[in-house]
Design brief:
Elements: H1 2-11, E1 18-21, H2 29-38, E2 42-45, H3 50-59, H4 63-74, E3 76-82, E4 95-101, E5 111-119, H5 124-127, E6 148-158, E7 168-174, E8 178-181, E9 189-191, H6 213-226, E10 233-236, H7 244-253, E11 257-262, H8 265-273, E12 279-282, H9 289-296, E13 301-306, H10 310-319, E14 320-328, H11 332-335, H12 346-351, E15 355-358, H13 368-380, E16 388-392, H14 397-403, E17 412-416
Parallel strand pairs: 1-2, 10-11, 10-13, 11-12, 13-14, 14-15, 16-17
Antiparallel strand pairs: 3-4, 5-6, 5-8, 5-17, 6-7, 7-9
Length: 418
């Protein structure tokens, strides 16, 4: 505990840093050196004899064994839980960090993952409500209990032949520092290629954004639901978010004209100058959304990718062309206030023969690897730019999550744990 707390909590190491350990063959120093290697540092130690130098230099490479022993000896995990159900805007006070006990055993058939990154997703707020239509598709969250969420991590102990210590995985983990799971066909978990943590082109973060559920939602919703044709006019709401920022880039790759709306001028600048949107606007500066869309789309909208719902959906329908398509991805304006529910003009829908379809990323689960392969090629070729907004530490999860509903994030919101 002295070595772990002193090195990780006091020194706060970063990958690639240079570390010197005195009395490096002692009870504390010998562990610190191994932890430093595990953290990706360059480490040198001094000792009182050549024999000690030889003995402990070889030990510095056994990082998985050492960290596994430490975790299993400690047998305590920390996790973020709800204090109570949330019916309106979430606040940091709605959450608490709790501790529990690890129960991994060599005969359990389970895999223990040290979580590295956690995904923050707006849909989780609907899971936090006492009742929500979303509970038909995803389980509600029980106050006090662990919260499942998409994440990425490293296997530190495995009682399953399919996974080995050191494997990097992405899938359904939890808002916690360690997650136990039992592999089965119904568990969303995949092993990533060796070197994923350090890949400069396909960084581990990308596997939770463009190559994770956000990317699958954007790709499936745009190409499978909207079925774009070159030259069509596309409108994307919440266009600087984790999904919208990708949809706009996909639209450009499909040869479409694309306009996005966002909640600040800085985000508008990002959309136009970094992500290649043809135009963008700050919806907070537009008192009349219907007039704004008529101005940006004088020839009408063919595709609307909706992340907001409410009045924005109503305005978009008024500007849709005949046989337009609407992909209902999210309705974040309605998650916190039922009074903002959309009341679309159904005559617009009927006489323009507008197709409106709601969908979930899980609808395309069997095609995740196909979509990820295409998107990863685009990233490597510089055609798609993932945008990630990262907070640090498990204790930052409540503030990171609530930031989603205050418009404070840009791109995919993540929390880095290690």
């Amino acid at each position: 505990m002295t070595a772990y707390g002193g090195f990780y909590e006091v020194c706060k190491p970063q990958r690639g840093e240079k570390v010197f350990v005195s009395a490096a063959s002692g009870s504390v120093g010998s562990l610190v050196g191994q932890f430093a290697k595990f953290a990706g540092c360059y480490v040198v130690g001094c000792a009182g004899s050549n024999a000690k130098v030889y003995q402990h230099s070889s030990h510095y490479t056994t990082r998985h064994t050492i960290i596994r022993q430490l975790i299993l000896a400690k047998r305590i995990l920390s996790y973020v839980a709800l204090r109570h159900h949330v019916e309106g805007f979430p606040s940091e006070e709605d959450f608490e960090v709790k501790t529990g006990r690890l129960s991994w055993r060599p005969e359990s058939g389970e895999v223990l993952v040290r979580n590295l990154y956690l995904s923050m997703d707006p849909y989780q707020l609907n899971r936090m409500k006492r009742r929500s239509p979303s509970h038909v598709a995803v389980d509600g969250i029980v106050p006090g209990e662990r919260i499942t969420a998409y994440g990425a991590g490293e296997v530190v102990a495995s009682a399953c032949a399919e996974y080995k210590e050191g494997d990097v995985v992405a899938g359904l983990l939890g808002w916690e520092d360690y997650t136990l799971f039992r592999p089965s066909p119904g568990v969303l978990m995949s092993k990533l290629a060796a070197g994923s943590v350090d890949d400069n082109d396909l960084h581990l973060k990308h596997h939770l954004s463009a190559l994770g559920t956000s990317g699958m939602t954007a790709y499936g919703g745009f190409y499978e639901v909207c079925k774009p044709q070159g030259g069509e006019k596309v409108f994307v709401s919440a266009a600087s978010g984790s999904v919208g920022s990708l949809v706009g880039q996909f639209a450009k790759l499909a040869g479409c004209y694309v306009v996005g709306c966002a909640s600040s001028n800085a985000k508008v600048d990002l959309l136009k100058n970094q992500l290649g949107f043809d135009d963008a606007f700050n919806y907070k500066e537009e008192p009349d959304m219907k007039s704004a869309l008529k101005r940006y789309f004088p020839d009408g909208i063919d595709i609307y990718f909706d992340n907001i719902g409410g009045k924005t959906l109503e305005a978009a329908l008024a500007s849709m062309n005949t046989h337009g398509r609407v992909a209902l991805c999210g309705a974040i304006s309605e998650y916190t206030d039922a009074g903002h529910r959309a009341s679309p003009d159904l005559l617009e829908v009927i006489y323009k023969r507008i197709a409106i379809r709601g969908f979930l990323s899980w609808d395309f689960l069997t095609r995740f690897s196909e979509f990820a392969g295409i998107i990863s090629d685009w990233i490597r070729q510089g055609k798609v730019k993932p945008i990630e907004d990262v907070s640090n530490g498990l204790e930052s999860v409540p503030s990171a999550f609530t930031a989603l509903f205050l418009g404070l994030n840009i791109g995919k919101k993540l929390v880095k744990l290690a």
